Every structure is written in C-alpha cells, then in structure tokens.
Amino acid sequence: MGQRGHSTAEVAPDCRCVPRLHHVLSAGWLRPTVFGAVDGLVTSASLIAGLAGGGASRHAVVLAGLAALVAGAFSMSTGEYVSVLSQNELTRAEDGRRTRGLPSALLAAASSLCAFSLGAALPLAPWLAGLASLGASLAVAGLTLAAGGAAVGILTERPPLLSAARQLGLGSLAISVTYLAGALIGAAAA
Fold first, then answer.
1. For residue 25, what pLDDT is reported?
2. What's the CA gap between 149 and 101, in Å, rounded?
3. What pLDDT is recorded for position 22?
4. Would you say residue 7 lies in a domain?
5. Residue 78 half-sphere exposure, CB side, CA atoms within 13 Å?
6. Residue 34 scores a pLDDT above 50
7. Would you say residue 143 has pLDDT above 90?
8. What is the mean pLDDT of residues 102-118?
C-alpha cells in the first residue's frame, strides 16, 4: 500500500524515479552550445548591421563577417575550455578528491566552437550568396533567435513563446544598438 491507504498504482509517480531530460542536458554541452549559438548569431548580425548602418561595401561586410566568425569561434572555444577546466579543478580542490560527473572541458569547447560558427554563419549567408541585404540577414537572425529560444524553452520546460520572445528581444536590442553606432560613426566619418 502507498500513501494514505492507496495502492502504489494510484499514487502519482515520484519524479525522482522517472528519467529526466536534465541528466542528458547536464552532460556539459547544452550551456556552451546555446551560449555559442546565440553569441555567434547576435555578434554576426550586430556586426553586419553596424557595417551596413555605416555604409560598408559587400566586400567589407563579408571580410569582417568571416574574420569575426573565425575569431569569435576560437575565442569562445578557448574561453569555454579554460572556464570548464578551471571550474573542474576548483571542484576537485574543494572536495579533496577526484569528483565524478564533472563536465568535459573538451566537449564544452567543441560545442562552443561549432555552435558559434553555425550561429555566426547564418546571418552572413545572404552576403556570401551575393545578396547584400541587411533585411535578409535580420530576417534570418530573427527567425533563428526565435526558433532557438523556443527550443530552449521546450528543453528547459519553460513556455516556448516566452523563451522565444526573450531571446528575440535581447538579440534585437544588441543588433539595433550596433546599427545605430555604425550609422553614427559612418555619418561622422563621411
């Protein structure tokens, strides 16, 4: 018999017994993947918006976009590796023993590198295809931010629309500020 005289079949299942998605997601790849993808997407879209706002040529946008993609991907990967490695070392030092279940620094670094590269390439794709269009880049960035936010909402059991709106709103703010900066600097330099 279970609680209050009910058979165990009638009692709601104990959540601790049900395999949770959390165990899969806490393996050390989700945070650097989400962070890398969002950072790559917002960095690239913001850079493109700033350059377009300042009147840069298609060549300048593509060159700067590709350079930022490579630099950002390796910077994020290096930072992720050092960060996770340092956190693991601190955890081991505090526990006085080798702790099982720590995230892999290499997995985090690889996840970050790949995700940043993909995120940064998406808003740059129209320019690489010969379509020098800020509107196309912003559409790709907006749709990707919203879809990524919704996916994270589903994975984290939050309302997908709320997560999509949050990610889209924050990304749009960064892109808008960079566009305005580019327009002001471009006008001042002219």
1. 53
2. 27
3. 52
4. no
5. 6
6. yes
7. yes
8. 95
- Split into its structural domains, the chain has a count of 1
Is 141 a member of any domain?
Answer: yes
Tokens representing residue 73 in the block: 């991907």
Rounded Cα–Cα distance for residues 7 and 4 (Å)? 9
* Residue type at position 102: L
**Residue 20 within any structural domain of the chain:** no
- What is the amino acid identity at position 50? G
What three-state secondary structure class fits 107? helix
The residues, ordered by sequence, that sit 6+ positions from 154 with a Cβ below 8 Å of its Cβ are 160
CA–CA separation, 155 and 163 (whole Å): 11
Taking the C-alpha atoms of residue 171 and residue 165, their distance in angstroms, rounded to an integer, is 10
**Percentage of the residues of the chain whose pLDDT score is greater than 70:** 85
Q: What is the extent of the structural domain holding 185?
A: 28-189
The arithmetic mean of pLDDT across residues 14-20, rounded, is: 46
Give domain status of residue 8, yes or no. no
